[in-house]
Amino acid sequence: MIKYLKKYALIACSLFTLAACDLEIDITNPGLITEKPQDKPQVGETITYRAQVWVEKNDMEELYGGERLFRQNLEALFRNTTTFWNESTNKFDYRFEWVVGEGDDNLVIYEIGSGVKTKEQYNVYKNKAYGTLNTEKYDFVLFLALNCPKGEGGLSCGGGGASKQSVVQSYFEGSHDIFAKKWPEKGTYSDLGHEYGHVRGAQDLYQYMIPAENNPISHVAYDYPKCNMGTGYQEWSDYCSAVFNHNAQYKQLTSDMTRSTYPKQMLVRVTKDGKPVQRATVNFWGSRASFRDIYAAPGNSPYMKKKTDANGELTINDIYRMFIPDYNNTPNLPPKSPVDEFPFSRWYCFVVEVELDGGQTKCVWLSDLDIVPEYLNGGQQEPYVFEIQI
């Protein structure tokens, strides 16, 4: 991982698969939102996100007909991404627009040499794209590497640039025409649209795809929503719509913005026939990225074990830290070495298990894909109430 990616986010993606990214969030300093609050846009307003685009000179000339033609096609690609965002089924409060910025340096033409180039050669300039960005003109960077060796293509989104900008890193083989496909057919423009979802703070939803066989606690698959963030096409989940609406006026995001999408406190209530279940043991088993499983191998303890009080309730005081723990100060987490068994250092959802008399259990799913949109859309205030009916 390059030094510029350590602070906030790293998302690694496959070139030709829309559902191909993962997000690493800063767990060292969650902090609070320190930016001066901005005025919330009016419903229906167009929110524009401006890119500074980087491209290698010889790639542009040898593969795409030179700067003039490249610029024309680049504008069309951004228009297609804008269409993809807004024409996909959604619950947006705004129209979101993706454009090439209008500054004199909106197209940064760097030069390596003719023909195929290695990722290492491209990365010299990609790293520079994490440097200071004029945020009066641009909101993020799209870095293009258009003539990579066969098998080395891939899209990703990294955060933590010097000006808090995200950088969408796009590596393509020379045989791939990034301008060939247009809406509604899947293409580079929609792959970039997926990456821009990360720019705006969304997780990869395919990490929530937990099959029944990977859930040793309740043996039930997680019913994830369809979404352009990796579980469907031409559809935004309620989670993404809520996050994009919430973050709309903030052009650069940090982990503080992720924290702000969660309620601060959760009240877990266990009832049976409408009455509180007192002194019930409640276990929280977490799901992991990459493995896409519930971490409950033999010998593992639950991530959290709590008991309800006389009112059949228990309280969790920091929901953000429940999902995104401080790794060095939290027990019962998967090891990070010698093999990283806790990719991206966060849980994606939980099986909540209530222990009943006679050794029986009741299990339900708890997911931030439900918590975040319900909280941001005003369906729940503080504390967030999660009721388990036996």
From TrEMBL:
This is DUF4198 domain-containing protein. Residues 1-19 form the signal peptide. It comes from the Bacteria. The keyword Signal applies. Keywords: Signal.
